[in-house]
What does this fold into?
Amino acid sequence: MTRSCELHVTWLHAADADAALLAEATSWLDVAEHDRAGRFARREDATDFLLGRWLARRALAATTGTRPDEWSFDLGDHGKPLARGPSVHAPAFNLSHGGGLVVCALCATADSSVGVDVESISRRLPGRRLERFLTERELHALGPESGSTFARRFWRTWTLKEATLKAAGTGIAGTLSAAEVELAAEGGARVRPGAPLDRIELLELPIAPTHCAAVAVDAPALDGVEVASITRAVVPPGT
Ligand SMILES: CC(C)(COP(=O)(O)OP(=O)(O)OC[C@H]1O[C@@H](n2cnc3c(N)ncnc32)[C@H](O)[C@@H]1OP(=O)(O)O)[C@@H](O)C(=O)NCCC(=O)NCCS
It folds into this structure.
Protein backbone atom coordinates (compact mmCIF):
# COMPACT_ATOMS: atom_id res chain seq x y z
CA MET A 1 0.00 0.00 0.00
CA THR A 2 1.36 3.44 -0.89
CA ARG A 3 1.49 6.13 1.77
CA SER A 4 2.08 9.70 0.65
CA CYS A 5 2.80 12.77 2.68
CA GLU A 6 -0.39 14.82 3.16
CA LEU A 7 0.57 18.49 2.82
CA HIS A 8 -1.56 21.42 4.02
CA VAL A 9 -0.59 25.04 3.37
CA THR A 10 -2.32 28.03 4.95
CA TRP A 11 -1.36 31.65 4.45
CA LEU A 12 -2.55 35.18 4.97
CA HIS A 13 -1.67 38.81 4.35
CA ALA A 14 -0.40 40.30 7.59
CA ALA A 15 -2.53 43.36 6.77
CA ASP A 16 -5.70 41.21 6.97
CA ALA A 17 -5.19 40.60 10.68
CA ASP A 18 -7.35 42.81 12.87
CA ALA A 19 -6.93 43.57 16.57
CA ALA A 20 -9.24 40.74 17.60
CA LEU A 21 -7.18 38.17 15.66
CA LEU A 22 -3.95 39.46 17.16
CA ALA A 23 -5.53 39.28 20.61
CA GLU A 24 -6.54 35.66 19.97
CA ALA A 25 -3.03 34.82 18.71
CA THR A 26 -1.53 36.46 21.80
CA SER A 27 -3.85 34.54 24.14
CA TRP A 28 -2.50 31.25 22.74
CA LEU A 29 1.20 32.07 23.40
CA ASP A 30 3.17 30.40 26.17
CA VAL A 31 5.51 32.30 28.49
CA ALA A 32 8.60 32.03 26.26
CA GLU A 33 6.62 33.20 23.22
CA HIS A 34 5.15 36.15 25.14
CA ASP A 35 8.65 37.11 26.09
CA ARG A 36 9.86 36.86 22.50
CA ALA A 37 6.85 38.77 21.09
CA GLY A 38 7.67 41.60 23.48
CA ARG A 39 11.31 41.86 22.36
CA PHE A 40 10.83 42.67 18.65
CA ALA A 41 12.07 46.17 17.81
CA ARG A 42 9.67 46.54 14.87
CA ARG A 43 5.94 46.13 15.26
CA GLU A 44 5.67 44.41 11.84
CA ASP A 45 8.09 41.69 13.00
CA ALA A 46 6.10 41.10 16.18
CA THR A 47 2.91 40.83 14.08
CA ASP A 48 4.54 38.35 11.67
CA PHE A 49 5.67 36.24 14.62
CA LEU A 50 2.19 36.26 16.19
CA LEU A 51 0.51 35.40 12.89
CA GLY A 52 2.90 32.53 12.24
CA ARG A 53 2.14 30.97 15.61
CA TRP A 54 -1.60 31.60 15.03
CA LEU A 55 -1.51 29.83 11.64
CA ALA A 56 0.58 26.95 13.02
CA ARG A 57 -1.67 26.34 16.04
CA ARG A 58 -4.80 26.46 13.86
CA ALA A 59 -3.31 24.02 11.35
CA LEU A 60 -2.11 21.66 14.09
CA ALA A 61 -5.54 21.74 15.75
CA ALA A 62 -7.43 21.24 12.48
CA THR A 63 -5.40 18.20 11.41
CA THR A 64 -5.39 16.46 14.80
CA GLY A 65 -8.86 17.30 16.17
CA THR A 66 -7.42 19.26 19.11
CA ARG A 67 -7.61 22.88 20.32
CA PRO A 68 -5.09 25.51 19.11
CA ASP A 69 -4.20 26.53 22.67
CA GLU A 70 -3.18 22.95 23.51
CA TRP A 71 -0.03 23.28 21.34
CA SER A 72 3.39 24.63 22.23
CA PHE A 73 6.79 24.52 20.52
CA ASP A 74 10.28 23.25 21.25
CA LEU A 75 13.21 24.61 19.29
CA GLY A 76 15.63 22.36 17.39
CA ASP A 77 19.42 22.87 17.35
CA HIS A 78 19.25 25.65 14.76
CA GLY A 79 16.04 27.21 16.03
CA LYS A 80 13.48 25.20 14.02
CA PRO A 81 10.18 25.11 15.96
CA LEU A 82 8.82 21.60 16.55
CA ALA A 83 5.26 21.04 17.73
CA ARG A 84 4.47 19.60 21.15
CA GLY A 85 0.82 18.93 21.95
CA PRO A 86 -1.91 16.66 23.21
CA SER A 87 -2.02 14.20 20.33
CA VAL A 88 0.40 11.28 20.16
CA HIS A 89 1.54 12.32 16.71
CA ALA A 90 2.77 15.91 16.42
CA PRO A 91 2.69 16.81 12.72
CA ALA A 92 5.73 18.41 11.13
CA PHE A 93 5.24 22.05 10.21
CA ASN A 94 7.21 25.12 9.24
CA LEU A 95 6.62 28.87 8.93
CA SER A 96 7.83 31.75 6.82
CA HIS A 97 7.07 35.47 6.64
CA GLY A 98 8.14 37.78 3.83
CA GLY A 99 6.88 40.90 2.06
CA GLY A 100 3.66 41.07 4.09
CA LEU A 101 2.69 37.39 3.71
CA VAL A 102 2.82 34.71 6.38
CA VAL A 103 2.79 31.04 5.32
CA CYS A 104 2.47 27.78 7.27
CA ALA A 105 3.14 24.35 5.72
CA LEU A 106 2.14 21.22 7.63
CA CYS A 107 2.62 17.52 6.84
CA ALA A 108 -0.17 15.56 8.48
CA THR A 109 1.57 12.21 7.87
CA ALA A 110 4.15 10.92 10.36
CA ASP A 111 7.80 10.35 9.28
CA SER A 112 8.14 13.65 7.47
CA SER A 113 9.77 17.00 7.87
CA VAL A 114 8.90 20.20 6.02
CA GLY A 115 10.34 23.59 5.18
CA VAL A 116 8.67 26.66 3.65
CA ASP A 117 9.87 30.02 2.40
CA VAL A 118 8.17 33.10 0.96
CA GLU A 119 9.72 36.27 -0.48
CA SER A 120 8.35 39.30 -2.29
CA ILE A 121 9.62 39.49 -5.88
CA SER A 122 10.08 43.24 -5.47
CA ARG A 123 12.50 42.74 -2.57
CA ARG A 124 15.87 44.25 -3.47
CA LEU A 125 18.33 41.73 -4.87
CA PRO A 126 21.55 41.34 -2.89
CA GLY A 127 23.53 43.36 -5.49
CA ARG A 128 26.90 42.01 -6.60
CA ARG A 129 27.00 39.46 -3.83
CA LEU A 130 24.71 37.00 -5.62
CA GLU A 131 27.46 34.36 -5.66
CA ARG A 132 27.31 34.29 -1.86
CA PHE A 133 23.73 33.05 -2.13
CA LEU A 134 23.65 30.85 -5.24
CA THR A 135 26.07 28.38 -6.82
CA GLU A 136 27.69 29.05 -10.17
CA ARG A 137 25.26 26.65 -11.89
CA GLU A 138 22.23 28.27 -10.24
CA LEU A 139 23.45 31.75 -11.22
CA HIS A 140 24.06 30.67 -14.82
CA ALA A 141 20.48 29.32 -15.03
CA LEU A 142 19.06 32.74 -14.09
CA GLY A 143 20.03 34.17 -17.51
CA PRO A 144 20.88 37.84 -18.19
CA GLU A 145 21.11 39.92 -15.03
CA SER A 146 18.33 42.46 -15.58
CA GLY A 147 14.58 42.85 -15.48
CA SER A 148 11.73 41.16 -13.69
CA THR A 149 12.36 37.71 -15.20
CA PHE A 150 15.79 37.65 -13.58
CA ALA A 151 14.37 38.80 -10.23
CA ARG A 152 11.61 36.22 -10.33
CA ARG A 153 14.07 33.41 -11.19
CA PHE A 154 16.39 34.55 -8.41
CA TRP A 155 13.62 34.52 -5.78
CA ARG A 156 12.23 31.21 -7.09
CA THR A 157 15.67 29.65 -6.73
CA TRP A 158 16.24 31.24 -3.32
CA THR A 159 12.88 30.24 -1.83
CA LEU A 160 13.32 26.64 -3.08
CA LYS A 161 16.81 26.51 -1.58
CA GLU A 162 15.82 28.07 1.73
CA ALA A 163 12.74 25.81 2.03
CA THR A 164 15.05 22.80 1.50
CA LEU A 165 17.50 23.92 4.19
CA LYS A 166 14.56 24.59 6.52
CA ALA A 167 13.17 21.09 5.89
CA ALA A 168 16.62 19.75 6.81
CA GLY A 169 16.42 21.91 9.97
CA THR A 170 19.75 23.71 9.55
CA GLY A 171 18.38 26.82 7.87
CA ILE A 172 21.06 28.85 6.13
CA ALA A 173 23.56 27.71 8.75
CA GLY A 174 23.71 24.63 6.47
CA THR A 175 25.88 24.57 3.34
CA LEU A 176 23.94 26.43 0.67
CA SER A 177 25.22 24.16 -2.13
CA ALA A 178 23.78 21.11 -0.32
CA ALA A 179 20.46 22.26 -1.73
CA GLU A 180 21.55 23.23 -5.25
CA VAL A 181 18.34 23.93 -7.16
CA GLU A 182 17.48 23.09 -10.77
CA LEU A 183 14.62 25.38 -11.75
CA ALA A 184 13.93 24.05 -15.22
CA ALA A 185 14.01 20.32 -14.54
CA GLU A 186 11.38 18.22 -16.32
CA GLY A 187 8.45 17.73 -13.95
CA GLY A 188 9.26 20.87 -11.95
CA ALA A 189 12.03 22.34 -9.86
CA ARG A 190 14.17 19.92 -7.87
CA VAL A 191 17.34 19.66 -5.83
CA ARG A 192 20.10 18.64 -8.25
CA PRO A 193 20.52 14.87 -8.22
CA GLY A 194 23.78 14.08 -6.42
CA ALA A 195 23.53 17.12 -4.11
CA PRO A 196 23.50 16.11 -0.41
CA LEU A 197 19.82 17.02 0.06
CA ASP A 198 18.54 15.57 -3.23
CA ARG A 199 16.10 13.25 -1.43
CA ILE A 200 13.99 16.32 -0.53
CA GLU A 201 10.97 17.02 -2.75
CA LEU A 202 10.18 20.57 -3.88
CA LEU A 203 6.95 22.33 -4.72
CA GLU A 204 6.37 25.91 -5.79
CA LEU A 205 3.26 27.46 -4.25
CA PRO A 206 0.93 29.54 -6.44
CA ILE A 207 -0.04 31.91 -3.65
CA ALA A 208 0.33 35.42 -5.05
CA PRO A 209 1.82 36.80 -8.30
CA THR A 210 3.78 39.33 -6.24
CA HIS A 211 5.64 36.66 -4.25
CA CYS A 212 7.65 33.47 -4.70
CA ALA A 213 6.85 30.71 -2.25
CA ALA A 214 8.16 27.16 -1.99
CA VAL A 215 7.71 24.07 0.16
CA ALA A 216 10.26 21.28 0.64
CA VAL A 217 9.31 17.90 2.08
CA ASP A 218 11.77 15.39 3.48
CA ALA A 219 9.95 12.08 3.76
CA PRO A 220 12.18 9.27 2.41
CA ALA A 221 9.98 6.54 3.92
CA LEU A 222 6.85 7.83 2.14
CA ASP A 223 5.73 7.64 -1.49
CA GLY A 224 5.70 11.28 -2.60
CA VAL A 225 3.72 14.32 -1.55
CA GLU A 226 -0.03 14.85 -1.92
CA VAL A 227 -1.05 18.51 -1.76
CA ALA A 228 -4.25 18.23 0.30
CA SER A 229 -4.92 21.97 0.60
CA ILE A 230 -3.54 25.43 -0.11
CA THR A 231 -5.83 27.85 1.68
CA ARG A 232 -5.88 31.55 2.41
CA ALA A 233 -6.80 31.66 6.09
CA VAL A 234 -10.24 33.12 6.58
CA VAL A 235 -10.18 35.78 9.22
CA PRO A 236 -13.54 35.54 10.96
CA PRO A 237 -15.11 38.95 11.59
CA GLY A 238 -14.49 40.05 15.18
CA THR A 239 -12.50 36.89 15.95
C1 LIG B 1 15.50 29.97 9.57
C2 LIG B 1 16.05 31.03 8.70
C3 LIG B 1 16.35 30.43 7.34
C4 LIG B 1 15.00 32.15 8.62
O1 LIG B 1 15.12 32.93 7.51
P1 LIG B 1 14.21 34.20 7.18
O2 LIG B 1 14.12 34.27 5.68
O3 LIG B 1 14.76 35.37 7.89
O4 LIG B 1 12.82 33.96 7.82
P2 LIG B 1 11.52 33.12 7.44
O5 LIG B 1 10.41 34.03 7.73
O6 LIG B 1 11.55 32.47 6.12
O7 LIG B 1 11.56 31.96 8.54
C5 LIG B 1 11.47 32.22 9.88
C6 LIG B 1 10.78 31.07 10.57
O8 LIG B 1 11.45 29.85 10.27
C7 LIG B 1 11.37 29.00 11.40
N1 LIG B 1 12.73 28.60 11.70
C8 LIG B 1 13.65 29.17 12.53
N2 LIG B 1 14.82 28.48 12.49
C9 LIG B 1 14.63 27.45 11.63
C10 LIG B 1 15.47 26.38 11.18
N3 LIG B 1 16.73 26.23 11.59
N4 LIG B 1 14.95 25.50 10.30
C11 LIG B 1 13.69 25.62 9.87
N5 LIG B 1 12.84 26.62 10.26
C12 LIG B 1 13.33 27.52 11.13
C13 LIG B 1 10.69 29.78 12.51
O9 LIG B 1 9.33 29.39 12.55
C14 LIG B 1 10.82 31.22 12.05
O10 LIG B 1 9.73 32.03 12.39
P3 LIG B 1 9.35 32.39 13.89
O11 LIG B 1 10.62 32.58 14.62
O12 LIG B 1 8.52 33.61 13.76
O13 LIG B 1 8.56 31.21 14.39
C15 LIG B 1 17.38 31.64 9.24
O14 LIG B 1 17.11 32.41 10.39
C16 LIG B 1 18.35 30.53 9.62
O15 LIG B 1 18.97 29.93 8.79
N6 LIG B 1 18.47 30.21 10.90
C17 LIG B 1 19.27 29.11 11.37
C18 LIG B 1 20.71 29.56 11.54
C19 LIG B 1 21.11 29.56 12.93
O16 LIG B 1 21.56 28.56 13.45
N7 LIG B 1 20.91 30.74 13.55
C20 LIG B 1 21.24 30.91 14.92
C21 LIG B 1 20.00 31.29 15.71
S1 LIG B 1 19.31 29.87 16.52
In short: The chain has one domain: 5-232. The domain at 5-232 is CATH 3.90.470.20 (Ribosomal Protein L22; Chain A). The chain has five helices and eleven strands.
